[in-house]
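Subject: for your reference before the review

Hello V.,

The reviewers asked for a structural picture of the protein, and I figured it would be easier to keep everything in one thread rather than splitting it across files. Below is the amino acid sequence we used in the manuscript, unchanged from the supplementary table.
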Amino acid sequence: MKKIALSFLVMLFVAGIAYAKDYEVKKKAGDYDVVVKIDKNPPVVGDNNITIEIKDASGKYVTDAKVKVEYFMPAMPGMPAMNYKTDAALSGNEYKAKMNLSMSGAWNIAVKITRGGKTSTAKFNVDAR
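And here is what came back from the structure prediction:
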């Protein structure tokens, strides 16, 4: 009986990993509503695909902006700060980019949206494993 129960728990755990949702965060950046999704939850050391959805105040998709993703880890004892930037490319109604997180730990992410000469920023943090 214990083996059956243990097997059932292992199956549930594996199924949960297989169907885990993307990491998702919703933020305001100026007048924009921004939804950021990362394909791994939690984000991992190495490549992570990021998708950014931007809507204006009327709820329409913004597809004419320049979007840049800046991600960094602050300096720690014996280690300098790590700063990276990548441009996000428009694909349909979303902007897509790839972040390469070089080590585990807390990362600060800023999505910078430039449209009409004005830049708005959505900031959030992730903990890479």
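For the response letter, the relevant points are probably these. Residues 2-18 form the longest helix (17 residues). The domain at 21-128 is CATH 2.60.40.1930 (Immunoglobulin-like).

Happy to draft the paragraph if you're swamped.

O.
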